[in-house]
Amino acid sequence: MADRVIKAALLGLGTVGGGVYKVLKMQEEEMIPKLGAKVELKKILVRNIEKASKKIDDPSLLTDNWKEIVEDPEIEIVIELIGGMEPARTYILEALEAGKNVVTANKDLIAADGHILLDTAAKNKKDFLHEAAVAGGIPIIRPIKQCLAGNHISEVMGIMNGTTNFILTKMSQNGMEFADALKLAQELGYAESDPTADVEGLDAGRKVAILASAAFNSRVTFDDVYTEGITKITATDIQYAKEMGCVIKLLGVARNTPEGIEARVHPMLIDVNHPLASVNDAYNAVFVQGDAVQDAMFYGRGAGELPTASAVVGDVFDIVRNILNDCCGRIGCTCYKNLPIKHMNEISSKFFIRMFVEDRPGVLANIASVFGNSGVSLAQVIQRRKNDQYAEIVVITDDVKEKNLKDALAVAKGMSTVKEISGMIRVA
After folding, report:
1. Beta bridge partners of 248
2. N or C, where is the chain less crowded by C-beta within 10 Å?
3. Where residue 238 falls among pLDDT bands split at 50, 70, 90?
4. CDD domains under this entry (predicted)?
5. Virtual CA dihedral for 223, 225, 230, 232, nearest 10 degrees?
6. What tens digit of pLDDT does each residue of 242-284 get?
7. Enzyme catalytic residues
8. Binding site for NADP(+): which residues?
């Protein structure tokens, strides 16, 4: 058994693929005592062999022909790190049908078609593991599916995107506006040249779908998740939050309620004493609430070459142990329920609303009346700043359904005394 060699193929040699190559090299001497076998890369699929040959010690591993991998009976594990929907989807399905185990970090694909991939793995009695798809190097999917399996999990909430957390941290600590903080994030390599997936909440939304499915044992796809980004957050919002003893974070929230699953991503004001409030820069953290464990938080680097590679290689090693003990496919799809998804309009929250109104008697009373007519109760009204004939006010509501607040804001926007509604942020 100690001489057993498990052959694997790596698809993609980008940031994470390169990290996996490095981590496997770093682990070479300990594989036999740690696993009882050695993992050996037999092929690496790339688009440009000449370019990729400069990244590795042995260019003979490189190929641009998928068939060399899928048709090779010696290869038992395929590590997909191409990303995107296609050809990754086709490669994964073909690998599973060919009797190979698969590891991936592809959150886009899993959030949309995870059930198809997991069902195909189960049919072929193979492993399909994807720990690296959520929160980089932070263990979270395996803990939910295995370590916390004795719980009924009611909530998963967290900071699931390092780029937006870095931006909000700089806005909070350095007083930067969004555009300046984004530019800094791009210069430091935290943000892509096209940051849309991050700053609009799409990346975090995919992670919420994956975690909600695992936590609540019911399928949630990316299309089920409400997403709202941080592009409208201003330094003024950040300052008001500080004055209220809060910070603003982009949070992914999944809750299992009697009326259905809440799955959403949006900025929130959270109290400075909340465990997530002190998670800064590019770090991620996921907060889990279960009936037995009560509260647990997982914290660490949510992205990057080696942190993400750490999760990928962890999955590879798990599969090696399963191969050696002939028990692949032990834990597959855990979505045995069919719970409804709660529409965003039916979700209740407290809200922070910032607006400019005419600075004259009776205006606040009229605004309060408009909100009251829509069933929105105001917990607090703050007037701090003036701009010519307009006053800036901040309204904090009590818990109210989203649809009721939208009705109130629609009427308020039409009032002649209201110049603009500058911001609306939910309050935890």
Report:
1. 269
2. N
3. very high
4. ACT_HSDH-Hom
5. 80
6. 999 999 999 999 999 999 999 999 999 999 999 999 999 999 9
7. 207
8. 11-18
Q: Which amino acid is at 293?
A: V
Number of alpha helices (DSSP H) and beta strands (DSSP E) in the chain: 15, 17
Within 185-343, strands assigned E span 226-227, 246-257, 260-271, 283-290, 294-301
Residues contributing to the annotated binding site for L-homoserine? 192
Tell me if 401 sits within 8 A of 348, measured CB to CB: yes
Dist. CA 159–CA 178, nearest whole Å: 18
The CA distance from 187 to 182, in Å, is 9
The annotation places the binding site at: 11-18, 107, 192
**Eight-state DSSP code of residue 293:** T
Q: Does the 5-136+305-324 domain belong in CATH 2.60.40.10?
A: no
Q: pLDDT of 132-180, one tens digit each? A: 999 999 999 999 999 999 999 999 999 999 999 999 999 999 999 999 9
Token couple for 31: 């594989």
Whole-Å CA distances, 158 to 212, 303, 427? 12, 15, 14
What's the fold here for domain 146-300? Dihydrodipicolinate Reductase; domain 2 (3.30.360)
User: How far apart are the C-alpha atoms of 205 and 228, rounded to whole Å?
Assistant: 9
Q: What is the distance between the alpha carbons of residues 67 and 133, in angstroms, rounded to a whole number? A: 25
- What is the separation of C-alpha 219 from the centre of its chain, rounded to a whole number of angstroms? 16
Transcribe 368-379 into DSSP letters: HHHHHHTT--EE
List where CATH 3.40.50.720 sits in the chain: 5-136+305-324
Give the 3-state DSSP-derived string for 166-204, with helices as H, strands as E and coil as C. HHHHHHHHHCCCHHHHHHHHHHCCCCCCCCHHHHCCHHH
In the chain, CATH 3.30.70.260 covers 345-427
Q: Which phi-psi region, left, alpha or beta, contains residue 202 (left: φ > 0; alpha: ψ -120 to 50)?
A: alpha
Architecture of domain 345-427: 2-Layer Sandwich (3.30)
Binding-site residues from annotation for NADPH: 107
Residue 200 tokens, joined = 């609009």
218: left (phi over 0), alpha (psi -120 to 50) or beta: beta
